[in-house]
Specification:
Order of helices and strands: HHHHHHHHEHHEEHEHE
Number of strands: 5
Mean pLDDT: 86
Structural class: alpha+beta
Low-confidence stretches: 1-11
Distance between the termini: 37 Å
Shape: elongated
Strand content: 5-15%
Largest sheet: 5 strands, mixed
Oligomer: single chain
Length: about 325
């Protein structure tokens, strides 16, 4: 996963920042314990502590370079399990105390499902060790507290992840029509170009602009104008395939990205769309029409040039009397 292409608020943005935080925290707080273990002659515990710090630091370094690998983050699990078992056997209750930051840390370093699995593994090891090493009353308290900490961490991360997903959807969605907005336009067109390069699939865009939309607002009011935009948005959403993308670029401008569609089929789609808009009772008492420009991706073309050609065809449709398609 390349974090450089992720948008702020995406779950991996949370993981990137929290992974760095966990690594710095481990470096500051765990390293002195590791050194102390060496001075106290506890070589295994000292080595285990340093191994955990090293793996966390390596993962943080990789993340800082723009690359996040959940599997790499999961490599800390066996080191953590080894450290906890030795800590239980050598230090008793101290080993139990180390379980608490361990179960929390995984929710801040790996995707949610992997974190739950990692914590299940840790709990399956830590809880029996607590019963084996500690007295029953103390082991019961440790088990209850450890389960509570793990549950609270899972709830906390679930809420954060859900909120970030909602914020990201709001950031890339046009609130009036529910279509995608400009935020993902460039990325979506770049991905279509990359897919064309990989598979030689034909890609076509259709630029759409409603005719005389200003007069609709002036004559019927902005509420009527919003209703027209919502009606066109609903129509576009129903007409495209699941693989296609629809954007509202702003005002009365829309753009449709058609995957695996050549120029002729793109023109036919645009013509059917033009007729559908004209025939639908979107605005009672007055027909709504649209002008459309169609452009198929050319070899060596970037997304700006590709979109510019669709705009040029759209302007030609406007100059040709509107309510028509130019491809």
């Amino acid at each position: 996963m390349n974090l450089e292409t992720e948008k702020p608020g995406h779950p991996s943005d949370f993981l990137r920042k929290s992974t760095m935080g966990v690594a710095v925290t481990a470096l500051i707080f765990l390293t002195p314990f590791a050194i102390n273990n060496f001075f106290q002659g506890r070589l295994i515990l000292g080595s285990g502590s340093l191994a955990i710090v090293f793996v966390l630091a390596a993962n943080a370094w990789s993340t800082s370079r723009g690359r996040y690998h959940p599997v790499f983050a999961l490599s800390i699990v066996p080191f953590t399990l080894f450290f906890l078992v030795i800590a239980f056997l050598k230090q008793g209750i101290i080993g139990a105390l180390w379980c608490y930051p361990a179960v929390i840390a995984f929710y801040f370093m790996v995707p949610e499902k992997m974190a739950r699995l990692s914590n299940a593994v840790i709990l399956c090891v830590a809880l029996p060790m607590a019963w084996f090493v500690l007295d029953f009353p103390l082991a019961a308290r440790v088990a209850a507290t450890l389960l509570a900490v793990s549950t609270f961490s899972a709830i906390f991360v679930r809420v954060i992840t859900s909120q970030q997903r909602q914020l990201r959807e709001q950031a890339v969605t046009d609130t009036l029509t529910g279509l995608s907005n400009r935020v993902l336009l460039g990325t979506s067109l770049e991905q279509a170009i990359e897919q064309h390069h990989r598979t030689n699939a034909v890609m076509t865009v259709v630029a759409l602009d409603l005719d005389h939309f200003k007069s609709v607002n002036d004559t019927f009011g902005h509420d009527a104008g919003d209703s027209v935009l919502q009606g066109v948005g609903d129509l576009l959403r129903k007409r495209v395939r699941r693989s296609d993308r629809v954007f509202r670029l702003g005002g009365e401008e829309f753009l449709v990205l058609l995957y695996g569609t050549d120029l002729e089929n793109g023109r036919l789609f645009a013509e059917e769309l033009r007729k559908a808009i004209e025939s639908q009772p979107i605005l009672p008492g007055q027909a709504v029409t649209a002008s459309l420009g169609v452009a198929t991706l050319r070899a060596g073309e970037d997304w700006n040039a590709w979109m510019k050609r669709s705009d040029e065809n759209l302007y030609r449709a406007k100059e040709s009397g509107r309510n028509c398609v130019i491809a």
